[in-house]
Design brief:
GO terms for molecular function: isomerase activity. The protein is an alpha+beta fold. The protein has 3 domains: about 80 residues, no CATH class; about 45 residues; about 100 residues, Chitinase A, domain 3 (Roll), CATH 3.10.50. The protein is built from 11 helices and 6 strands. A hairpin with a 2-residue loop joins strand 1 and strand 2. Helix 5 packs across helix 11. The radius of gyration is 32 Å and the shape is flat. It starts with a helix and ends in an 8-residue tail after the last helix.
Length: about 280
């Protein structure tokens, strides 16, 4: 408690110091000053999480102000005890140079290339590098339905969910509207086994990843619901990932390849132009 009081007194002193009229704060409201450096109200507001209660906001502000003041005090102490500031200046200059080049390169890349990659490019890369994209878990196609045990016509559902026919699917869709807690149709897309495993109270899926390859029709129940799962197609772990799951990764790869190629060509062009204009001087 005494430490907290001392901290409150310190904040009060710093707040008073921050009100020095001779300093141009450029329209900002000073909160704390340490050795001529200011933390402003606007800076604190910019990092304040949204939706906090008044109590939590006050606690966050107190902690942030304290950390800021401690960092400033440590910086002042460190700066006065580092004998060779030249090395620091050199490192800062090198970092600034790298940062400026990076930002310039990114701006040029965005202007020239953007983030567009055609479907044809993605599919070609997928075919040529199929070994890169392997499933880390099984994937399935089919349908899933969760129905209360008290629902009517469960015997009909047992017949419908096993058949991949238009009539059966239409019947399930209509039935699901008024009776199902959850109904998912994914004959037309692959989904990871884990997406279904968390919805199905079947412990076998935790230890046997090939279970649904051997059991394409699964019906289980708990104290309140009946779960139906039909697996039309099964992709084992280690097989080539479906294109729909590799697409985003391939796009990122292709964009990065284009960026590297563009930047390399830009550097070569700059070097060639400078050489022709004798802007590069070599000393022997």
């Amino acid at each position: 408690m005494r430490q907290k009081r001392r901290w409150n007194i310190l904040v009060a002193v710093l707040l008073l110091a921050g009100c020095t009229p001779s300093v141009d704060h450029k329209g900002k409201t000073p909160l704390v000053e340490v050795a001529g450096n200011f933390l402003y109200k606007e800076d604190l507001q910019a990092v304040m999480p949204i939706g906090l209660s008044q109590k939590d906001s006050t606690a966050f502000a107190d902690e942030y102000i304290r950390n800021w003041a401690e960092d400033e005090l440590l910086y002042q102490k460190a700066e006065g005890n580092i004998p060779d500031n030249v090395k620091i200046d050199e490192r800062v200059a090198a970092f600034r140079k790298a940062l400026v080049m990076h930002m310039y390169e990114e701006e040029l890349v965005n202007q020239e290339l953007g983030n567009t990659v055609s479907d044809e490019e993605v599919e070609a890369y997928y075919r040529q590098n199929s070994g890169m994209f392997r499933a880390g878990q099984p994937y399935i196609q089919g349908l899933f339905m969760k129905v209360p045990l008290t629902a009517s016509q469960l015997s009909k559902v047992r017949g419908w969910y096993k058949r991949n026919t238009q009539d059966a699917i239409d019947n399930l869709s209509k039935y699901g509207i008024g009776n199902a807690v959850s109904y998912e149709y994914f004959y037309d897309r692959w989904i990871p086994l884990s997406d279904i495993a968390v919805k199905l109270p079947l412990k076998a899926l935790d230890t046997d990843r090939d279970y649904l390859n051997r059991n394409r029709n699964v019906e289980v129940r708990d104290t309140a619901f009946c779960y139906f799962l039909h697996v039309e197609n099964f992709l084992p772990e280690g097989e080539q990932l479906p294109l729909e799951y590799a697409r985003s990764e391939i796009k990122e790869i292709l964009i990065n390849l284009k960026r590297v190629d563009f930047i390399n060509r830009m550097k070569q062009d700059l070097y060639k132009e400078a050489s022709e204009d004798n802007d590069i001087v070599y000393y022997k």
